[in-house]
Design a protein that fits this description.
The structure holds 2 protein chains of 2 kinds. By secondary structure, chain A is of the alpha/beta class. Chain A has helices at residues 2-11, 23-34, 52-55, 87-100, 191-201, 225-233, 235-256, 261-277, 281-287, 304-308, 366-369, 403-423, 433-447, 475-481; strands spanning 13-19, 40-43, 107-108, 113-119, 124-129, 134-142, 164-167, 181-185, 204-208, 215-216, 299-300, 313-316, 320-323, 327-330, 335-337, 340-343, 358-359, 388-390, 429-431, 490-492. Chain A has 2 domains: 2-149 and 349-492, FAD/NAD(P)-binding domain (3-Layer(bba) Sandwich), CATH 3.50.50.60; 164-214 and 258-343, FAD/NAD(P)-binding domain (3-Layer(bba) Sandwich), CATH 3.50.50. Chain A has 14 helices and 20 strands. The longest helix of chain A is centred in the middle third of the chain and has 22 residues, at 235-256. Chain A starts with a helix and ends with a strand.
C-alpha cells in the first residue's frame, strides 16, 4: 500500500508542492484555490496545522502585533477576543482557515521534507520526505517558517542537567510547576511572556538575562461585544481599523528602522515605562539597554517588569558559566539549583544556511551557497533555484509591522509565478543572477543605515555582522516591489 | 610586557571560572585561626568583603562605559568575579564563625559613603578614572593585603580560596594595565588638559572626599592587623613599575595622578596629605547611623552559600 502510494506520488506532478501548513502554507493554498488551481499538495511535518502558533503554546504566548493586523486581509476575523490575542486563539484562526477553505484534503501530515531537488530536465521540484515518499511539483513554496526550529544556547554542560528541561517552543503541558524552583534562560520575546505566567505558579523563579531589551507597554484589552458585532455587521469598519493599525505601525518604522528623533522619543517612552514600573534604581539599571532601540527586537509587554519584582522572582545578570547536574553556575560563584530549566532562547535562524538540503540547477547546494550569508531576490526567489518560492526568506523580516502583510505580498507574487509557469508552460522561471546581485547590493547599502546594523549583536545578523534577515524599509515598499512579477528579471526556459 | 590580546584574554577568563562549590568549606583547618588573630581578622575580612563588593560595582560601571564589546564583556565578568571574591571571603568568615546570621556585617561609615557615591556617580565617571583606580586598589589588595593574609593565616582552605582569587586578580590586573596603556596612547599634551577638566567636576571632587578617608582608614586598619608598612610601599612600587613600563602607560595622566596619590597615601610622613584626610576620617566616623544615605539595591547581594 505504502509502495503504491509512493509510486503514485512519484508519477503525479502537482502544480505546486507547499512545504509547511502554517500561516504561509495555508495562505498559499487559499490563493491557489481562489485562482482555480486545485492540484497542489501541502507537506506538513507535524500532525496538525498551525506552524509557529501550533509549536509556541507556552503560558502567556501571544502575538505582539494587534490581531486585526496579524491576520490575513482576505480572511478577517471579527471575533478576536482581545486586541493582542493569545496563541491558542491564533491557532484556532489558522485551524479555521484550514477548515473554511477546505484545505485539509490537500495536506499530508507527518510528512517531513528532508530535501528538495530541482530536476532540470523535467522542470520540476522533487520533495523527499523522511518516510521515503517523493512529491513532485512544477513549482514549490518553501513555507517552513523562518523561526521553526528551537535554538538551545551554547552553554557548556547543557546536557548534564538532571532536572526537567523545556524549550519555550516545545512546551511540556504535563509538567506541574507548582512548588518548583524554576529557571528561565533568556529575556527575549518568549521569556517576557512566560515569566509573568510562571511566577504565579512556581515556588521560586530566577530569570537569567544576558542583554536587556527595549520594552514598550502593550495596551492589551478585551474586545467589547459591541465591537465584535460592529465588525460582523459592517466589515468595512474592521477594514478601516486594520488600515489604521497598519498606518500606525508603518509610522513606527521611522523610529525603529532608522535612527531619527522618533527613535529618541521611543527610547524615552520605554525608559518612562521602566521607571514607572520599577522603583529600584539598580534593577532599572540592569534592565536598561545600552543599544539603540530597534537594533534588537522591540518587546511589548506591561506584565514583565512587575513579574520580575514579585517576592519569588529574581533577575540574574551574572554571566552563566555552565549548567551542572543540579542547576546553573554563574560567574559570581554560586550554583543556582532548579527542578526545571526553561530555555526561552529563540529559534535557529537560517541566515547562514538552508533550512533543509535544497539542490538547484546543476546540483548546486543552497546550504553551501548561503554559508557566507543568505541572499535571495525580494525575499521570495533565489537565483539558480528556478520555480522555488519562499515566504519570509532572506531580508523580508519586518521590525515594525505585521509579518503577515509581508507574507501576503509574497504569496501573491508566488501566485503570479505559478501562473506564468503554468500558462507559458515554463520548465524554468529563474531569477537572473545579476538582478539578484544588484537587488542585494541595494539592500545592504540601505541596511547599513538602519538601527539593526548600528552595532549591537542580534539574531538579525550573522556572526560577521551581515544582515540577511531584515527588510530596510516600510512594509508598503516591500509590498510595492512584489506587486508585479517582472518577466525581464527572470530567465525563462 | 606588551599590551595583551584582549579577545584571547576574554576567552581565558571564560575558561577559568570557578564556583564556591569547588571548595570544601568544611575541610579541617578552621581551628588554626588563633584567638589573638580572630578579632582583627574579622574586622579585616569585613572590610575586604565590602571592598570586593564595591569593586564589583566599579567594574559594573566600567562595563557600561567600555569602548569595545570585548571590554564590555570582560568587565561584566570582572564585576561578577569581584562578587565571587566577596562571596568566597564571606564563606571563609562563615567557616571561622565570624558571621552572625546569613548577612554580611554592616560596613563602616566610610564604606557607606563610598557606596552611596558609587551608586550616584560611578556610571558617569570618566572611564579611565575607574580604569586606573581599580588596578591600583587591586595591586594593594593582591600584592600586599592578601599576600600578607596568606603569610599569617595557616588555614589551608583560606589558601585554596585565595589562590583562586589571586588568579582572577592577576587577569584583572593584566587587563587593567593594558587598558591604562591604551588610555595613554595618543594622550600627550591634550591628555593632561582633558584630565584636569574631568577632575574638577563636582562629583569627582566629592568622590575624592569620600574615597581618600576610606583609603586612610583601610591603610591604618591593615597596619593594625600587623601588615608591615613596607609591604604597602612595595605593592605601590609594583603598580608604578608595571603601569609605567611603557611610554604609553607613563603618558596616561590618570596613571601619574593615581600613582602619586598612592605613594603619598601609604607614607604616613606626608603630613600635608594625612592631616586633613585623617580629619575627614574622624568626621565621617561621627556621622550617626540615621544620617547615612540609604543602601542602594545592589548592596547585600553577597552570600556565603555555595548553592542557592
Amino acid at each position: 500500500m505504502v509502495r503504491k502510494q509512493q509510486a503514485h506520488n512519484e508519477q503525479h506532478t502537482h502544480a505546486m508542492v507547499i512545504v509547511g501548513a502554517g500561516f504561509a502554507g495555508l495562505g498559499m493554498a487559499i490563493k491557489l484555490r481562489q485562482a482555480g488551481i486545485e492540484d497542489f499538495v501541502i507537506l506538513e511535518r507535524a500532525s496538525e496545522v498551525g506552524g509557529t502558533w501550533r509549536d509556541n503554546q507556552y503560558p502567556g504566548a501571544a502575538c505582539d502585533v494587534p490581531s486585526n493586523l496579524y491576520s490575513f486581509s482576505f480572511a478577517p476575523n471579527p471575533d478576536w477576543s482581545r486586541s493582542y490575542s493569545g496563541s491558542r486563539e491564533i491557532l484556532d484562526y489558522i485551524r479555521y482557515l484550514a477548515d473554511a477553505y477546505d484545505l485539509r484534503r490537500h495536506i499530508r501530515f507527518n510528512a517531513n521534507v528532508d530535501s528538495l531537488r530541482f530536476d532540470e530536465e523535467a522542470g520540476v521540484w522533487r520533495a523527499h520526505t523522511d518516510d521515503g515518499a517523493t512529491h513532485v511539483g512544477r513549482a514549490t513554496l518553501l513555507a517552513s517558517g523562518p523561526l521553526a526550529d528551537p535554538e538551545y544556547p551554547n552553554i557548556s554542560g547543557i546536557d548534564d542537567f538532571q532536572g526537567h528541561r523545556i524549550h519555550s517552543s516545545r512546551w511540556d503541558h504535563d509538567y506541574d510547576f507548582r512548588g518548583k524552583k524554576v529557571a528561565v534562560i533568556g529575556t527575549g520575546a518568549s521569556a517576557v511572556q512566560i515569566v509573568p505566567e510562571l511566577v504565579k505558579e512556581v515556588d521560586q523563579l530566577k530569570v537569567f538575562q544576558r542583554t536587556p531589551a527595549w520594552i514598550l507597554p502593550r495596551l492589551d484589552v478585551a474586545t467589547p461585544e459591541w465591537n465584535k458585532t460592529l465588525f460582523r455587521r459592517i466589515p468595512g469598519a474592521q477594514d478601516a481599523m486594520r488600515k489604521a493599525l497598519y498606518g500606525v505601525h508603518e509610522a513606527m518604522a521611522l523610529g525603529v528602522v532608522w535612527n531619527t528623533p522618533l527613535t529618541k522619543l521611543l527610547e524615552r517612552m520605554a525608559r518612562a515605562h521602566l521607571h514607572r514600573q520599577v522603583k529600584d534604581a539598580w534593577l532599572r539599571r540592569e534592565l536598561t539597554p545600552d543599544f539603540t532601540i530597534g537594533c534588537k527586537r522591540v518587546l511589548m509587554t506591561s506584565d514583565y517588569y512587575p513579574a520580575l519584582q514579585q517576592p519569588n522572582c529574581k533577575l540574574i545578570t551574572y554571566p552563566i558559566d555552565r549548567i551542572s547536574e543540579q542547576g546553573i553556575r554563574t560567574a559570581e560563584g554560586i550554583e543556582h539549583q532548579f527542578d526545571c530549566i526553561v530555555f526561552a532562547t529563540g529559534f535557529h535562524v537560517n541566515n547562514q544556511g538552508a533550512p533543509i538540503p535544497i539542490y538547484g540547477r546543476g546540483g548546486r547546494n543552497l546550504d553551501a551557497e548561503w554559508r557566507g550569508g543568505a541572499r535571495a531576490f525580494k525575499g521570495t526567489n533565489i537565483s539558480g533555484y528556478p520555480n522555488l518560492f519562499m515566504t519570509l526568506g532572506p531580508n523580508s523580516g519586518p521590525g515594525h509591522n505585521s509579518a503577515l502583510v509581508y507574507m501576503e505580498a509574497q504569496l501573491d507574487y508566488a501566485l503570479q509565478g505559478v501562473h506564468k509557469i503554468l500558462q507559458e508552460d515554463l520548465k524554468m522561471l529563474d531569477v537572473r543572477p545579476h538582478v539578484q546581485q544588484k537587488h542585494n547590493e541595494r539592500l545592504q547599502k540601505r541596511l547599513a543605515k538602519t538601527n539593526w546594523n548600528s552595532g549591537c549583536s542580534s539574531w538579525y545578523l550573522t556572526e560577521d555582522g551581515f544582515n540577511a534577515t531584515m527588510f530596510p524599509g516600510f512594509a508598503t515598499q516591500f509590498v510595492q516591489q512584489l506587486k508585479t512579477l517582472q518577466g525581464k528579471d527572470y530567465i525563462k526556459v | 610586557m606588551a599590551t595583551i590580546d584582549l579577545d584571547q584574554m576574554l576567552d581565558k577568563v571564560k575558561a577559568s571560572q570557578w564556583a564556591l562549590k569547588d571548595i570544601d568549606w568544611d575541610a579541617p583547618g578552621a581551628e588554626l585561626i588563633t584567638d589573638e588573630q580572630w578579632p582583627k581578622l574579622r574586622d579585616f575580612m569585613v572590610d575586604l568583603v565590602w571592598i570586593e563588593h564595591v569593586g564589583a560595582r566599579g567594574f559594573a560601571a566600567m562595563a557600561k562605559n567600555a569602548p569595545t564589546d570585548t571590554l564590555r564583556q570582560m568587565y561584566h565578568y570582572f564585576y561578577a568575579e569581584e562578587q565571587r571574591h566577596a562571596n568566597a571571603e564571606m564563606a571563609l568568615m562563615k567557616r571561622w564563625g565570624m558571621l552572625d546570621g546569613d548577612d554580611v556585617p554592616e560596613p563602616n561609615n566610610n564604606i557607606r559613603l563610598v557606596v552611596d557615591w558609587m551608586e550616584k556617580h560611578a556610571d558617569e565617571l570618566p572611564y579611565n578614572v575607574l580604569g586606573t583606580v581599580i588596578p591600583a586598589l587591586e595591586v594593594a589588595l593582591d600584592g600586599a593585603l592578601c599576600q600578607f593574609l596568606l603569610e599569617t593565616v595557616d588555614d589551608p582552605v583560606c589558601h585554596e580560596a585565595f589562590d583562586k582569587i589571586n588568579e582572577d586578580e592577576s587577569r584583572h590586573l593584566g587587563v587593567g594595565f593594558s587598558v591604562m596603556e591604551m588610555q595613554g596612547h595618543n594622550q600627550a599634551s591634550v591628555g593632561m588638559v582633558r584630565f584636569m577638566g574631568r577632575m574638577f567636576q563636582p562629583h569627582v571632587l566629592l568622590g575624592l572626599a569620600v574615597y581618600t578617608p576610606l583609603l586612610n582608614k583601610m591603610r591604618d586598619n591593615v597596619v593594625k592587623v600587623g601588615l608591615p608598612e613596607e609591604k604597602l610601599y612595595h605593592a605601590m612600587k609594583k603598580f608604578e613599575k608595571i603601569g609605567g613600563r611603557t611610554e604609553q602607560g607613563r603618558r596616561n595622566p590618570m596613571f601619574q595622578f593615581v600613582a602619586r596619590h598612592m605613594r603619598v597615601m601609604v607614607d604616613r610622613n606626608q603630613k600635608f596629605y594625612h592631616t586633613p584626610v585623617d580629619l575627614l576620617v574622624k568626621l565621617t566616623d561621627r556621622i550617626p547611623a540615621w544620617a547615612l544615605p540609604d543602601k542602594p539595591g545592589w548592596v547585600g547581594d553577597v552570600t556565603w552559600k555555595p548553592t542557592d
